[in-house]
Task: inverse folding
């Protein structure tokens, strides 16, 4: 008796699932290489069986005009990519965007976050202000790295959680890490060189899962209205800190944003905030470590 | 044809670099598009408010082999598409 190969079209696709903030995501493909790559990229993020899939993407080889396509099965939107690695990276980005839905029950912040001994510092700042570099410098000093771009916050318990996305470092950070570490980082299974730097999972280097931590302090980089001549950390009153952090959160444009302001106001009242002036990275990481020591409860 | 006035990235658009392209996602419509490298140049220019002429000049600077007339035509096509999908906002 002989068995014939089952055509791809009728074979069940393999599925990689992951979850965050009560949302479930899945990536399907008939291609084993996609499954392997997605397994590496989404490995740290457990799938909660209680979460129905919020979004599903299929990643398959494309037609002659594109090497790979990623299709959102809910909206039908298709993006085309030069490689399967890039298609999976696009899905990683698109999934995280669901966490910025302004009707999501969770507060999602555009922020970096690093933690030590269960106590986290949340780092806010505009794009290019150096959030990723500072968070990475703290990681180099033994902090756990929750993320450089997207953080999930429970404002009531002040708990910060990582979002399911690799950390993105720019080439400028290479000098901070040194060439040897940069090369080791690029050799990790989930790492991916990008035009601007690289993506990676910190735990593939330090062996430490991304922590969940209580936010002990917030720091702002390049905050509009901050005293530009300041050469030391300056405390920000809770009301001002609330308004300063609001634009970085997913719910800032809700019609009922008074409720969000009240929620963040409660968080800011219990979480000291500081302007951190730009300076040598060592000085900035010293300042963050000093803040965490000073605000110890 | 794109209208006179100023154009800028929509506040509802999120972007990331993937390879040498930029993936855009619209948080309200949940639409995603991928920009090629010239589109990526224009997208970066649109971080601040720009006119069609500004954008065409920027494109010509980055891709000098593209004649100025072609650059302006490409900018019009780019803006038409991205305004229609609400990734770019227009201020007359």
Result:
């Amino acid at each position: 008796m002989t068995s014939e190969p089952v055509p791809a079209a009728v074979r069940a696709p393999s599925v990689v699932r992951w979850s965050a903030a009560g949302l479930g995501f899945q990536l399907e493909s008939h291609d084993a290489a996609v499954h392997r790559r997605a397994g590496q990229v989404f490995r740290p993020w457990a799938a909660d069986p209680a979460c129905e899939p919020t979004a599903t993407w299929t990643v398959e080889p494309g037609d002659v005009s594109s090497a790979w396509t990623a299709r959102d099965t809910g909206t039908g939107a298709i993006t085309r990519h030069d490689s399967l690695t890039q298609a999976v990276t696009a899905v990683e980005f698109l999934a995280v965007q669901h966490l910025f839905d302004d009707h999501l029950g969770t507060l999602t912040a555009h922020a970096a976050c690093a933690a030590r001994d269960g106590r986290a510092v949340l780092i806010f700042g505009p794009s290019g202000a150096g959030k990723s570099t500072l968070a990475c410098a703290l990681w180099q000093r033994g902090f756990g790295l929750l993320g450089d771009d997207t953080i999930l916050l429970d404002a009531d318990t002040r708990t910060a959680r990582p979002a399911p996305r690799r950390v993105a470092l720019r080439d400028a950070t290479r000098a901070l890490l040194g060439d040897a570490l940069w090369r080791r980082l690029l050799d990790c299974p989930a790492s991916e060189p990008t035009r601007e730097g690289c993506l990676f999972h910190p735990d593939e280097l330090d062996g430490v899962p991304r922590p969940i931590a209580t936010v002990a302090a917030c720091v702002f980089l390049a905050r509009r209205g901050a005293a530009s001549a300041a050469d030391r950390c300056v405390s920000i009153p809770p009301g001002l800190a609330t308004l300063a952090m609001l634009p970085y959160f997913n719910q800032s444009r809700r019609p009922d944003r008074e409720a969000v302001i009240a929620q963040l106001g409660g968080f800011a009242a219990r979480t000291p905030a500081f302007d951190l002036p730009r300076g040598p990275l060592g000085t900035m990481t010293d300042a963050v470590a000093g803040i965490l020591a000073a605000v110890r409860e | 044809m794109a209208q006179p006035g100023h154009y800028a990235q929509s506040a509802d658009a999120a972007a990331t670099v993937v390879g040498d392209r930029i993936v855009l996602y619209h948080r309200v419509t949940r639409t995603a598009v991928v920009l090629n490298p010239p589109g990526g140049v224009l997208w970066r220019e649109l971080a601040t408010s720009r006119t069609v002429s500004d954008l065409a000049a920027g494109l010509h600077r980055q891709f000098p082999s593209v004649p100025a007339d072609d650059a302006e035509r490409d900018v019009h096509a780019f803006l038409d598409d991205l305004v229609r999908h609400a990734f770019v906002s227009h201020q007359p």
About this structure: Chain B has a mean pLDDT of 92. The CA atoms of residues 45 and 54 of chain B lie 9 Å apart. The interface with chain A takes residues 11, 14, 16-21, 23, 25, 27, 30-34 of chain B (CB under 8 Å). DSSP finds three helices and five strands in chain B.
